């Protein structure tokens, strides 16, 4: 029973991280209809920024987190204005090819700057643990879960309690009507894309302190985020969080109870679950936008 409780706790921690990075993908796809294939590379950029801040400047990742999120927003805003915004409402293949190219370039740059050697952001609390009702969590992973929860709550408040958030939701629901009432759709796209990238930069910052990362990890993170978004329903934060927890629990269960091959099975199981759920609910758990071949 004790081992099961520990596995469940580990799954919740992992699910919190997955929810944070998947929400960035869900927001961009829900508002713009763009499936960002460079999503995982953006997570890694955040991780390498935090590593650089700690390694060269001695700045703790948690202290650097707000600045990295601001940099993420700026990077996303500029990227949308210069490249991604030009392919919105165009044939879907254009956005797929564009973001795939961006991801390939980002991976190449990271490989050139940091090599393929796995990195981890070492902090003063890297070896500490937190005890929760007799269960243990490495302190970096506890901060990863706490940070993910705080950022997701703030994102929910931004999207539901501010004028900017209501404009983003209006553009996601009906772009034509949003234009009629005077909403600048181009500005909304840039803001939404900026917020999405800020979220994944934050996820990368939190990830880097909890586990190793390297330039080739991006595609795997993109696949996991995509599976969570499809499973939870595009544009639905509640569904995204629930799906992320399910995926996190599946991965930790298989890794703990299926020796040697459990980690690999976790990825396969996630996509099998997506297929099974979509057979019953094509719009995902919470009934968001349906993902089709035309998106």
Automatic annotation (TrEMBL):
Keywords: Amino-acid transport, Cell membrane, Membrane, Transmembrane, Transmembrane helix, Transport
Name of the protein in its database record: Branched-chain amino acid ABC transporter permease
GO (cellular component) term, any one: plasma membrane
Subcellular location(s) of the protein: Cell membrane
UniProt-recorded Gene Ontology molecular function terms: transmembrane transporter activity
CDD domains per UniProt: TM_PBP1_LivH_like
Species: Prauserella flavalba
Pfam families: BPD_transp_2
Record keyword Transport present: yes
Spans through the membrane: 12-35, 65-84, 96-115, 142-159, 180-201, 213-234, 241-258, 264-280
Keyword Lipid biosynthesis: no
Main location: membrane
Family, similarity comment: Belongs to the binding-protein-dependent transport system permease family. LivHM subfamily.
Coiled coil: none
A Gene Ontology biological process term: amino acid transport
Membrane topology qualifier: Multi-pass membrane protein
Domain of life: Bacteria
């Amino acid at each position: 029973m004790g081992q099961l409780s520990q596995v469940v706790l580990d799954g919740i921690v992992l699910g919190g991280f997955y929810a944070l990075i998947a929400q960035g993908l869900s927001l961009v796809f829900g508002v713009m209809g763009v499936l960002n294939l460079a999503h995982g590379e953006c997570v890694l950029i955040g991780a390498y920024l935090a590593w650089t801040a700690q390694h060269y400047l001695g700045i703790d990742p948690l202290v650097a987190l707000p600045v990295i999120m601001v940099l993420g927003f700026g990077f996303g805003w500029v990227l949308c204005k210069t490249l991604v915004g030009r392919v919105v409402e165009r044939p879907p293949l254009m956005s797929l090819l564009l973001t795939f190219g961006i991801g390939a370039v980002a991976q190449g740059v990271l490989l050139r700057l940091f090599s393929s050697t796995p990195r981890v952001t070492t902090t003063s609390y890297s070896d500490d643990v937190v005890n929760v009702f007799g269960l243990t969590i490495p302190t970096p992973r506890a901060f990863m879960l706490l940070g993910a929860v705080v950022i997701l709550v703030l994102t929910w408040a931004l999207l539901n309690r501010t004028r900017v958030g209501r404009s983003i939701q209006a553009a996601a629901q009906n772009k034509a009507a949003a234009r009629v009432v005077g909403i600048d759709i181009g500005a909304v796209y840039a803001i939404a894309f900026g917020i999405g990238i800020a979220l994944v930069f934050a996820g990368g910052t939190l990830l880097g302190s909890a586990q190793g990362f390297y330039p080739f990890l991006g595609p795997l993170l993109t696949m996991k985020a995509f599976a969570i978004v499809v499973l939870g329903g595009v544009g639905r934060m509640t569904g995204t969080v629930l799906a992320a927890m399910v995926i996190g629990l599946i991965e930790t269960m298989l890794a703990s109870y299926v020796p040697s091959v459990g980690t690999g099975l976790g990825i396969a199981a996630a996509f099998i679950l997506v297929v099974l759920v979509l057979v019953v609910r094509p719009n995902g758990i919470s009934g968001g936008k349906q993902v089709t071949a035309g998106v």
